[in-house]
TrEMBL record:
Keyword NADP: yes
Official protein name in the record: NmrA-like domain-containing protein
Classification via PANTHER family: NITROGEN METABOLITE REPRESSION PROTEIN NMRA FAMILY MEMBER, NMRA-LIKE DOMAIN-CONTAINING PROTEIN
InterPro entries: NAD(P)-bd_dom_sf, NmrA-like, NmrA-like_oxidored
Keywords: NADP
Coiled-coil ranges per UniProt: none
GO cellular component: nucleus
Domain of life: Eukaryota
Family classification: Belongs to the NmrA-type oxidoreductase family.
Source organism (scientific name): Aspergillus puulaauensis
Annotated NmrA-like domain residues: 7-304
Length: 344
């Protein structure tokens, strides 16, 4: 009997979700898998650092099925995640979208759907494959009967998920779908800060101020640390039977709840003021996308669970999995830099 460990192939090994999976298994006293990380650039400093820790780093091009065939060779498990936003903010892709006569969101939806179709087709050919974990999101257009048709970063993944289920039933018998919740990390960058509408620091009053935006402020969202907790959740998924759709969530909290939690961590109070529900993120395509995403979440739930009753929470997987609380996550962040607490 061979003593070699099964191979786990991880997409986005230097990114948020994929990087978390790699970090989790590297942190174990004895990983159950040999780790193979896919990246666009194996020569990058992050890739080289992972290779030095024993991860086999290989180039993977989601538009090149042959490269995927090579990367998947001998794989026992594959964790698949793709990046909608890289193309969305790429000026060259915006030029192509304009030349095609469609919005950048629709253009990127088509791109990401094709990337995932290529990955699914390649995974279906791997004779050694036992488990496939597909990071996806609900089909907002379909679940809302066309009301929310501009949430392209959800539907791009959902359409590929539906393709995989219909086209490769044998692969889908080995598949668990992961719906990653709203990233807690979004509070720490420009895109997420606008999308999540975080509180602002009022230097004069020494407090946090949060605009209240009607139903958006009180609707629960699945808050999720993609960087800290995806690895532990994927490890749990790989220890359970396939065929489930799992939502990645640390806690379901409203935007108002998060502000209160952050105020507790910072030891300050939060003032709630009336805001403009028609928020503007500075980019009309992004504004429309995020506004519809948040409205969909209010009506159908971020994971679509008010319509799709098959969604499973991490605590329902049947195996132990510890995901930190939002307060624990907040306590580890450098909010003084993010909110400019004490700044000029």
């Amino acid at each position: 009997m061979s003593s070699e460990k099964p191979i786990l192939v991880v997409f986005g090994a230097t990114g948020n979700q994929g990087g978390s999976v790699i970090s989790h298994f590297l942190s174990l006293p004895s990983s159950p898998y040999t780790l193979r990380g896919l990246t666009r650039d194996p020569s990058s400093s992050k890739s080289v650092a992972l290779a030095a820790r024993g991860v086999e780093m290989v180039a993977g091009n989601n538009y090149d099925p042959a490269s995927l065939d090579a990367a998947f060779k001998g794989a026992s498990a594959i964790f698949c995640v793709t990046d909608f936003w890289a193309a969305f903010f790429d000026p060259s892709q915006r030029e192509k979208a304009a030349a095609s006569g469609i919005s950048i969101g629709e253009y990127c939806r088509n791109l990401e759907e094709q990337q995932n179709r290529n990955i699914i087709d390649a995974a279906a050919k791997v004779s050694t494959l036992v488990r496939f974990v597909f990071s996806s999101l609900p089909n907002t257009n379909k679940l809302s009967s066309g009301k929310y048709k501009n949430v392209y970063h959800f539907d791009s993944k959902a359409l590929a998920e539906e393709y995989g289920r219909a086209t490769h039933p044998s692969l889908w018998e080995k598949t668990t779908v992961l719906y990653a919740g709203l990233y807690l990390e979004n509070w720490l960058d420009t895109l997420g800060a606008g999308a999540l509408l975080p509180p602002k620091w009022n230097k004069e009053e020494d407090q946090l101020v949060l605009p209240l935006l009607g139903p958006l402020s009180d609707a629960p969202f699945p808050l999720y640390s993609a960087v800290d907790d995806t690895g532990a959740l994927v490890h749990a998924i790989l220890r359970t039977d396939p065929g489930q759709k799992v939502v990645g969530v640390n806690e379901w909290l409203s935007i108002k709840d998060i502000a209160i939690t952050l105020g507790q961590v910072l030891g300050t109070r939060v003032e709630f003021v009336q805001g403009d529900p028609g928020f503007d993120l500075g980019d009309p395509d992004l504004t429309k996308e995020m506004a519809e995403m948040m409205e969909f979440s209010v009506v159908f739930g971020y994971d679509g669970a008010r319509v799709d009753k098959t969604i499973v929470k991490p605590g329902e997987l049947g195996v132990p999995v510890h995901l930190q609380s939002v307060k624990e996550w907040c306590a580890k962040q450098d909010w003084k830099s993010v909110l400019q607490v004490g700044g000029n």
